[in-house]
Amino acid sequence: MLAAGLAIADEKGLDAVTMGAVAARLGVTPMALYRHVANKADLMDGIVELLLTEFPPPPAGPWTDRLSGLADAIRASARRHPSVFPLLLQRPATTPRARQARHGVYAALEEAGIDTARLAQTERLISTAVLGFAVSEAAGRFRSHSRRQLDDDFARLLELLGRFIESESTRPGTDRPVPARPSSP
Amino acid sequence: MLAAGLAIADEKGLDAVTMGAVAARLGVTPMALYRHVANKADLMDGIVELLLTEFPPPPAGPWTDRLSGLADAIRASARRHPSVFPLLLQRPATTPRARQARHGVYAALEEAGIDTARLAQTERLISTAVLGFAVSEAAGRFRSHSRRQLDDDFARLLELLGRFIESESTRPGTDRPVPARPSSP
DNA sequence: ACCTGAACACCGTTCAAGT
DNA sequence: ACCTGAACACCGTTCAAGT
Q1: Most CB contacts within 10 A, which of A132, B52, B157, B174?
Q2: What is the tens place of the pLDDT at every residue in A34-43?
């Protein structure tokens, strides 16, 4: 049912996600939905939460790859679900799925040499920038820019964040601040 | 009429901005609104555009102060209009007001020594990060954080961006990357 | 336990009519 | 030029009733 709502949002936009439309896709009357959901707001909450499902579990590898991999996954999710993704900014990341993703970032930052006391704030800064970009792209602020341009912008943003992390690290880093990211095929 | 709609959004949220509610605030019937606006979407566009009015014209002073002043103004606007502000991410900044703000940033970046060819992309990076923070705060993603914490986060974000600009500058900068921002009283 | 039909208040929008 | 009354299709939600 949440999947049905997400599919409708992807295909026809947020406004098309109506109790009637979701019910119809399930072959049921609108009132049947109230068995599984308190009201429409509750439905929307569930659909937004469903997005987090797509963020992959923390992979292996060096921390730079882990972070850029997560960032890429977030952007990809935004592109896949442009009308729902912006709603992510409306709720604190307190659900189990959200915590999992956040703690994955903590681990990577710790490995990068970020002081434990600064982990949370640094994560907030990074995720705000990445989410800001992903939402901007999904919501249409960058409508007039080419895909190539956006890929380039995003790469530059990640490079900036990587350099920031290195500069905040208490451990001596390598010479080169951050490796170049591979361009997606 | 746009102001009436914005006021309703501020007071009771986006859902309360209804043709009937706006009309009632103006002492008129809902149908009268269709003289001034094509439909509700058009009304919402106008309300969002109205937000840009609050962004102050580029002030005088060193570029660091100009940029942080604009960033502060943007965040203040987001806090004042939490339900409408996030909609800014849905439209390209192509209106005259938006261009004005953007060109103010260009001028500051040029003064900071950013290469002309990189002006637009650098501006996009910076405004994405600042808007991402402002929208996150307005929309409620940071609901569980204190005002002090958010002020601190924002200061750190601006510091990061300032350092980034310095590092991208083709001119030799001063020793200290960016001046500390004064805390608001 | 799960679903439905009928009903209600509310919404955006239209159109012909009023001044 | 500007506004209105009446009407329409649609929406979220309730409640009593059905299996």
Answers
A1: A132
A2: 999 999 999 9
